[in-house]
Amino acid sequence: MTKKLMPILLVLALVLSACGSKTGDKNNESAKKDEKPTTITYQSENGPVEVPADPQRIVVLSFSYSGSVLALGGNIVGIDAWSKANPRFEDGLKNAEVVTDENLEKIIELEPDLIIGQADTKNVDKLKKIAPTVTITYGKNDYLTQHIEIGKLLNKEREATEWVENFKKEAAAAGEEIKAKIGADATVSVIENQDKQLFVFGENFARGTEILYQEMKLNMPEKVKQDVLKPGFYAISPEVLADYAGDYVIFSKNSDGDTSFQQTETYKNIPAVKNNRVFEVNAKEFYFNDPITLEYQLDFFKKSFLGE
């Protein structure tokens, strides 16, 4: 190799080295941009909480939030008894253990990386030592904002918001169809039997009430407005059911409870009963107001009112 050629090769090597270095830097920067954070900071009602960006093992101590977690693809390993008994949640909870806020040892064994409870959850300080724990006051947000809040917690706010927007449009459209069929002035009641007691529900106590009254803008009977709207639910005896029954009645039925009132002449003479306008549904599938339940309720109303 000649002496004249050596400086040229040296310069070329330096240039290639610099280019390689820049390319490597760019690749590293690109890789960093593609990396997902392992944790996020969730702004809870009690202050910021560092939670997993993609939680893998979630314990939910309240039925108020279990359906939202399932709808967003969360893997629930520990759950409350009411959620476990919901047939709509059966597939998503088949491997989940029933736990309470007092089953600390059992929760430890489940090795959760996120725990979700309500504001009145017990042993929160102890639960925080097991995994990041977030408590949410039920009713602080409306039923749809509540789902978005769970979306924020699970780092899936976009998915939750899109679902809410689509659901509101679908429910409103169904409401217009139903009003066109039953009449704009027709009234609808929602009742449920528990043990030997009957309850009537207002506009925000699950059982499909949010859909019927908030999204579809259907009417309540006057007696329901007077006695039920403010408290949200109201206990009545079967003898006065006729006073609260609308032109149509949604009966959230606990088949293991007392349903003997349905055999009485008082019940059979209610106009909605005589006109075959009582729509019965399994209460255990109808209790909640999460996306899974809401979609089921909306489908039930379409089939019941419209025959779809």
UniProtKB/TrEMBL annotation:
Residues 57-308 form the Fe/B12 periplasmic-binding domain. PROSITE patterns: FE_B12_PBP, PROKAR_LIPOPROTEIN. The keyword Signal applies. GO terms for cellular component: outer membrane-bounded periplasmic space; plasma membrane. Keywords: Signal, Transport. Residues 23-49 are annotated as: Disordered. PANTHER family: IRON III DICITRATE-BINDING PERIPLASMIC PROTEIN, IRON(3+)-HYDROXAMATE-BINDING PROTEIN FHUD. This is Iron-hydroxamate ABC transporter substrate-binding protein.
